[in-house]
């Protein structure tokens, strides 16, 4: 009902719970397949580094994520001592980068074309993700996806479950997927 009201009022349903006016740069970017997403939301900026400041903030570059100290007293102590506030960091592997681009494409374009993804990632996409693609069958029978020999397309109903759909491509969530599915619904 809410989705209908917003789309009838001139908004584009970008994905999950995000809407933008049809003339907004986010809507245009999605139509042009240039929409991007980071952990803060959708964006039109491709390849931008994200530098975050403040306690517990998370920064991101092409191949590294890092998080500042979470404890307020410790965070201020580090600043007072002119020491770096970063406490956690992660260097992405090649597999992480492939999965990141796949998840980004699906969350932003709401589809994956196997041939285009194979070219983009320099892999045999169907072979590389055979287990993940096979695991999407239940979502297809639930009407959330259309899968065929050319690729995967998220249905209108599936947009609300895009987080759950892309979880199939996140290797770090595989062991805990049932619990996480419940948390995202």
Considering the chains and any ligands shown, give keywords for the structure.
single chain, 185 residues, alpha+beta, Arc Repressor Mutant, subunit A, 3 domains, three-stranded antiparallel β-sheet, 11 helices, 21% strand
Walk me through this protein's architecture:
- This protein is α+β, with helices and mostly antiparallel strands and 185 residues long.
- It has three domains: 1-43, no CATH class; 58-91, no CATH class; 93-185, Arc Repressor Mutant, subunit A, CATH 1.10.10.
- 43% of the residues lie in helices and 21% in strands.
- The chain contains eleven helices and ten strands.
- It has a three-stranded antiparallel β-sheet with strand order 5-6-7, with no helix packed on it. A three-stranded antiparallel β-sheet has the order 8-10-9. The chain has a two-stranded antiparallel sheet with strand order 1-2.
- Strand 1 and strand 2 form a beta hairpin.
- The two termini are 17 Å apart.
- The mean pLDDT is 90.
